Structure formats: C-alpha cells, structure tokens
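Chain A, query sequence.
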Amino acid sequence: MLTLDKVYLAGAELRSVVRKTDLIRADALSRNCEVFLKTENLQKTGSFKVRGAYYKMSNMTQEERERGVVACSAGNHAQGVALAAQKFGIRSVIFLPNGAPISKIEATRALGAEIMLVDGVYDDAYEAAIQYCADNHMVFLHPFDDVDVIAGQSTVALEVLEQLPDLEAIVVPIGGGGLIAGIAFAIKAMRPSCKVYGVQAAGADSMKRSFDDKCHYFAETVSTFADGIAVKNPGDLTYDICMDYVDEIVTVTEDQTATAILTLMERQKLVAEGAGAVAVAAIMFNKLPIAGKKVCAVISGGNIDVNILSRVINRGLVTSGRLTNLTIELIDKPGQLKNVSALIADQGANVISVQYTPGGPNMDINGCYLHISMETRNHAHLEQIRKAINDSGLCIRDL
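Chain A, predicted structure.
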C-alpha cells in the first residue's frame, strides 16, 4: 500500500542521490495565472525517473540484487534504472522500443546497462522484457505500476510543496501514470485543496479515456513524438490512484507540444522533450481552469533527440505564426518578385526563401506561382500581410 510514511521514507532515501530540482517562476508562459516550473529535465539522467528506480532498488533484498534487474522503457526509465543499478552494483538489462531516441539508448548503454531493442512501442518492449525476466530468473522493475516506484516519484511533490507552500494547482504529464499517481497521492494527503491535473498527448490518451469512462482502457495504437508518454496501457495501480486523487485529465496536440518546447527554449532557456512539455502546453493553450491560481507545471524530462529538435522547433514556429509559407499567383514578367518582396518588407516581415514554379493548365499562359517562406511575429501579423497582398491586387493561393 502507498502511504504517506512511505513517501517520506522515499524522500529521506533519495536526499543524497537525486537533485532537488529548481522551481522557476515563468511569467512569460501565461497571462492568466502564476506559473512555476518544476525542472525535472535538469535531474540526473535528465528525467524524474531515477527517483522511482533508485527507491525501488533500495528496498530489494540482497538475493534479488544478485539476480539482477530487467526493465522496459521508452528511454527515461531506462537511464534511471541503469544509474541506480550502477550505484548498487546490480546487473541491468533494459528493453527499449527501436524507435526510442538514439541519444537515450546510448546514454543508457553508457551507464553500464545491457540494451535490447524491440520492434514497436513501449508496450511491445514490456512484453519482451517480461518474457526475458522469467526465462533468466531476474527481477522486473516496472516503470510505473509499482508502489515503491510511485513512492519514489512522489518525492517531486514533497519538494514542490516545500518550495511553494501556497501552491493551488499542479499540472503533470501522464504516460503510464507513475509520476502523477505519486504526486497526486502526496499532494492530496498534505494539501487537499490543491488541484491535480494530468496531461496526455492526444495520440496517446489511454489514461484520459480510462479516467473519463471510469473503466480501464487499452489503446490499440499510439501516435505521438512525445515518446516518453507513448503508452498504450496505463497501470492498474496508477489508474486506481488517479481515480481517487486526480481532478482532471486533458490532452494536447502535437503542434501545441511543439510550441511549448519552443517557448521553453526561447523564454526560459530550458530544453524539454515532448513528454516533458505537455504540462506547459496545457497551460499555454488554456486547457485547464487555473485562472488566477499559483500553478506548478512539471517538466518531467529533457532528453529530446537533437535529430528531431529542429523539426519540433520548425513546427512550433509554424503553429505560433512565426514561420509562414505563402503561395502567390502572378503573371510572369520582370519586377514581380521585387514588388512582392517590397510589399512584405513594408509590413515588417522577413523573407527567408523564394521558389518559382510554372502555372497550372487552368492559368494564363504566362502565369506562375511564387512560393515564399517568411518570418512573422504572430498570427495577427500574418493576417495583416495577407490583407496587404490581397489589397494590392495579387492573389494568394492555398495549395
């Protein structure tokens, strides 16, 4: 059973092992509430996961440690288990989906773990890990559906309440539910008036569906670049705790998550992975009833693959109206590009690329398309530019 005593024991056990991550005020993220960021992306291994993994191993018997541990993960739990196993001198075998970011795979390997890659997503790695564990008589260390793991994750809440005693709401990412289960239990035990909100990716919303329908839901597929929360099946224990202690669960889109990642980089100088940014996305896009409240968003991880980061930034720029592509229908004659460029420059935008293509069969024989990419301030600025182009007699085509 999860108890407040166990939560405090976990806090004491982890005090010399994990970082007490900063709680940073972030006024730039919302005009409607006071936002504070719990920066678990700056934790050892770049994620909160080391808390649960280490506390679980601290409670293992010597016989269990000698057998070694098996774990499955999308990447962050893998690093937490590998680091904890290294500190305890325990053999660790980690199963990861082959789509996990290379940076997470290599970071786990560097901590001394044996790596097994599995086709599919987290749940496929889970099945393979369970079978390997049984075949080799090792100890399975579940990433979220375990009392000790949940107790370890709950220490995030202990720190937040110490750092912000008058906290009114906390927003937490959800994959399998271990983090929010621990935080919700601890928050409601120590500050019952504080609201606990969960956030999932719209393409991986099994806990939200379970929560809303009051029935454990298993998703056939998941689709999100937030690999850390791409879970088909939430835990049984975490589901029960969420039903008892969580106030509401919402979802955010891929575009909203990308915008949150971009905003955290620009405004707060923080790098968050997709799973780590969904709580911020929910606040930025007004998904929750938190107006006027002191709110903590948990940035659960920062292990984003640099190969995908540029795509995420580009998507965030497009979503926020900062990067725009326009296609303008023209008559192909000298001076047209100069006129269009001058018109855009007069509106304060910056043209960064231009491409010309011949017109289609339904256009004038001298017709052409001018494809322009430009940097703009926001959506309102874009509309101002579109109006100026239309008012000049040119035609914008949405191809």
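The chain has a mean pLDDT of 93. The radius of gyration is 24 Å.
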